[in-house]
Amino acid sequence: IDVFICKLRNKLDAASGGQNYIEAVWGCGYVLREPDDIRESA
Predict the structure, then answer these.
(1) Which residues contact 22 (CB under 8 A, 6 or more apart)?
(2) How far apart, in whole angstroms, are the C-alpha atoms of residue 34 and residue 39?
(3) Over the stretch 17-40, which tens digit does the pLDDT of each residue have?
(4) Given CA atoms 15, 20, 24, 28 in this order, what sign does their dihedral have?
(5) Contact 12/21 with Cβ under 8 angstroms?
(6) Considering only CA atoms, which of 28, 30, 26 is closest in space to residue 2?
(7) 3-state DSSP assignment of residue 30
(8) What is the rounded distance in angstroms from the CA atom of residue 42 to the CA atom of residue 27?
(9) What pLDDT sits at residue 1?
(10) pTM for the complete prediction?
(11) Strand partners, 14
(12) Strand, helix or coil for residue 7
């Protein structure tokens, strides 16, 4: 899982200009976050 998340983060980083969409949640796993600018404009 860790290797898959790392590769996915690298692909999202290249496509989004450096924004981190995937966060590790201790004790739970991972969570996919929306970028702040999309949430604010909606």
Answers:
(1) 5, 8, 9, 12, 30, 31, 32, 33
(2) 7
(3) 877 888 899 999 999 888 765 555
(4) negative
(5) yes
(6) 30
(7) strand
(8) 31
(9) 87
(10) 0.64
(11) none
(12) helix
Question: Distance between CA atoms of 42 and 5, rounded to whole angstroms?
Answer: 28
Tokens representing 2 are 């860790």
Number of residues that make up the chain? 42
What CA–CA distance (Å, rounded) separates 15 from 27?
29
**φ, ψ dihedrals at 31, nearest 5°:** -135, 140
**Distances 27 to 15, 20, 24, 30, 38 between C-alpha atoms, Å:** 29, 20, 9, 9, 28
List the structure tokens of 27.
């004790």
**What pLDDT is recorded for position 17?**
80
